[in-house]
Amino acid sequence: PGQRVTVAGSFNGWDPFIHELQEVAPGKYRLDLELGPGEHYYVFMYRGDRVPDPLNGRLLYGRDGRVVSAITVSAP
């Protein structure tokens, strides 16, 4: 609880400072983003570390060889 958590991914140029999650309950964070159709890769940034999404079992290796989470957004 009370931590700063951000998300970096293919949708924001892997910039860890653009999208900060909001704490909606102690230790529970949320961020609503509209993503275009296609596959997107991301990690959470917590205390300077890259953390794959613990609620998303779809893990891949990024170009740098580190683990990233992946999500596919369908066309409307």
Primary descriptors:
single chain; 76 residues; mainly beta; two-stranded antiparallel ribbon; 47% strand
Which geometry do the CA atoms define? globular
> Could you give the order of the helices and strands?
EEEEEEEE
Unreliable runs: none
The biggest beta sheet reads: 6 strands, antiparallel
Q: In oligomeric terms, what are we looking at? A: single chain
Q: Report the mean per-residue pLDDT as an integer.
A: 96
The level of helicity is: under 10%
Total number of β-strand segments?
8
Measure the end-to-end span: 35 Å
Strand content: over 45%
Rounded to the nearest angstrom, the radius of gyration is 12 Å
Secondary-structure-based class equals: mainly beta
DSSP summary: helix tally: 0
What does this structure look like?
This protein has 76 residues and is mainly beta. It contains no helices and eight strands. The strands form two sheets. Strands 1, 2, 5, 6, 7 and 8 form a six-stranded antiparallel β-sheet that branches. The radius of gyration is 12 Å and the shape is globular. The model has no long low-confidence stretch (mean pLDDT 96).
